[in-house]
Specification:
The structure is a homodimer.
Chain A: H1 27-39, H2 43-53, E1 59-61, H3 62-65, H4 72-84, E2 88-93, E3 96-101, H5 103-112
Helix pairs in contact in A: 2-4
The first copy, chain A, binds a DNA duplex through residues 1-3, 42, 44, 61-63, 66, 70-80, 92, 94-97.
DNA sequence: CGCCTGATTCGACAAACGTCGATGCGCTGA
DNA sequence: TCAGCGCATCGACGTTTGTCGAATCAGGCG
């Protein structure tokens, strides 16, 4: 990854939104956006993300989604990756930690892939 | 990846298109879709993909896009990955090999990320 | 045919990744 | 105050990945 202490991406700051078909991606943007796609590039992470995205109220606590076939530390590790990529945000409320998707970040990825426009 | 000889995905067969917000992804679909996102999860590959997607006429030969800062065999390696993920198709015409994006596959990814609907 | 150019395949290697069990931290409730 | 639960971090491990140079394959052209 050549990911030496990547700063956690700001949840509301998507670097680029123009469709890939409209113009060539800059080197810097390609690094940022690739990190996001990479975060969804693991089946376990994609399922975790899916569980949060489809959760009632738009949020889910770890205990609700950790049944994905790997150990609890591994779930925590993957959630951290998704957080660091800017795709999820987390908040502790009492005993539980709740995760939500960062809508604008995901929208930015979708916009990038919207090739016919 | 536990990727023992994944078959090249059929360019026109996207397994799932419903937004992630609507329902939880199945295990099988998560594997398939994660492979696609993973293919875009490298800066070099994302730039190559971007170059093809934004090329005039919707296609580009390797020689036109291989200036991404890595050696030519590495470019070929990355293009193969993108092909195996179903995101690009290639065709040899004479001396050159031309790459195109597989629009429906990319559209499927975009649909998955379209969370507000 | 034999050479040149474009592109893929091969073999090797360091770095990054996914996974686990053990451990640590934060909060709640007895 | 201390036990217990939820979640994160640590340390270690085998596997996968990205990269390269060298070799190979595929066409065009003299």
């Amino acid at each position: 990854m050549s990911n030496l202490e990547l700063p956690v991406l700001e949840a509301e700051a998507v670097p680029c939104c123009a469709p890939l078909s409209s113009a060539e991606l800059s080197v810097g943007d390609s690094v940022t956006m690739a990190a996001m796609f990479k975060a969804l590039g693991d089946p376990v992470r994609l399922r975790l993300f899916s569980k949060v995205a489809s959760a009632e109220g738009g949020e889910a606590c770890v205990c609700d989604i950790q049944d994905v076939g790997v150990s609890q530390p591994t779930v925590s590790h993957h959630l951290k990756k998704l957080r660091e990529a800017g795709l999820l945000t987390s908040e502790r409320r009492g005993t539980w930690v709740y995760y939500r998707v960062a809508p604008s970040v995901v929208a930015g990825m979708a916009a990038l892939l919207d090739l016919d426009r």
